[in-house]
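Hi L.,

As promised, Resolvase/invertase-type recombinase catalytic domain-containing protein:
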Amino acid sequence: MKQQIYNTALYLRLSRDDELQGESSSITTQRSMLRLYAKEHHLNVIDEYIDDGWSGTNFDRPSFQRMIEDIEVGKINCVVTKDLSRLDIVKIS
């Protein structure tokens, strides 16, 4: 039986409540965790989508929108994130 290939997006987000300049240490930690998870589960990582300093209540996050576009065109078929509060679920029709 042929194994499914998961073309994977790593989605990282940190709220703007974190006032640090540049990439936050939380984003760096999320990246390390997600890369390790993808490696351990043999996921084909296509890209990282990072919204550092964006609230999860806003769907106009630049990397989130780019990720949705990549899902819609079939570039990726799997999304990995630290927890669902980072992602916020939307229905894609």
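The beta strands are 7-14, 44-52, 78-81.

Thanks again for sending the construct details.

K.
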